[in-house]
Amino acid sequence: xxxxxxxxxxxGKTLAVDxxxxxxxxxxxxxxxxxxxxxxxxxxxxxxGTLSPTAGAxxxxxxxxxxxxxxAKRRIGFIPDRPFLYEKLxxxxxxxxxxxxxxxxxxxxxxxxxxxxxxxxxxxxxxxLIEAYSHGMKQRLVISAALLHDPRVLVVDEPMxxxxxxxxxxxxxxxxxxxxxxxxxxxxxHTLSVAEDLCDRIGIIHRGxxxxxxxxxxxxxxxQAQQADLEEVFLKLTEEQAPS
Length: 244
What we know:
The chain is α/β, with parallel strands linked by helices. The protein has two domains: about 160 residues, 3-Layer(aba) Sandwich (Rossmann fold); about 70 residues, no CATH class. Helix content is about 40%, strand content about 25%. It contains nine helices and ten strands. The strands form two sheets. A six-stranded mixed sheet has the order 6-7-8-3-9-10, with helices on both faces. α3 runs parallel beside α5. The protein starts with a strand and ends with a helix.
């Protein structure tokens, strides 16, 4: 579903992402973790087609992002860490706007939008202006909009930011359900307990390069820390990569 091959991004002399190669299968929840400035957001922007790579390829559901960007983007649902919303729209108007971007037909839109807004506890505010929403409500609206077109691939950047515990559990359950139905989920997060709880495999990026990849058990074995939690494993592996 997701194939990244030798993905590279340079900004002048700065190498932000260094020949990154990985794949995410249908029905897999893949965690992407790394320190600040490691290259996570740059990678996600290249995957989503909003940033062109210096070299390498992004293939989404068999479609090359560089060759057929519009078709590839239609297969993706994107949930950013900082929701960008048109705050003078109502929640339902924003859902309509998102549906038009992804070609969701009139016959499908209304029941799908209402079902998602109910699921995320927003239906009673669907005709209120977004500017009146709390941060958590805005985040839930962005998640709702990202699922409108039943994406084959879901790219999630810090999905739990600003959510209360009940909403966090809801999002976890929804991501698990999407994976069970065959969606490939690519999730970047600093909340390592969430990654450990949700993800089938985890990749650790550091200084633009993928330094470790595997299940939590495999990463613990790599770090020689079988009894540690993911946070300890992450710190050990990234510290080993620190310049001497």
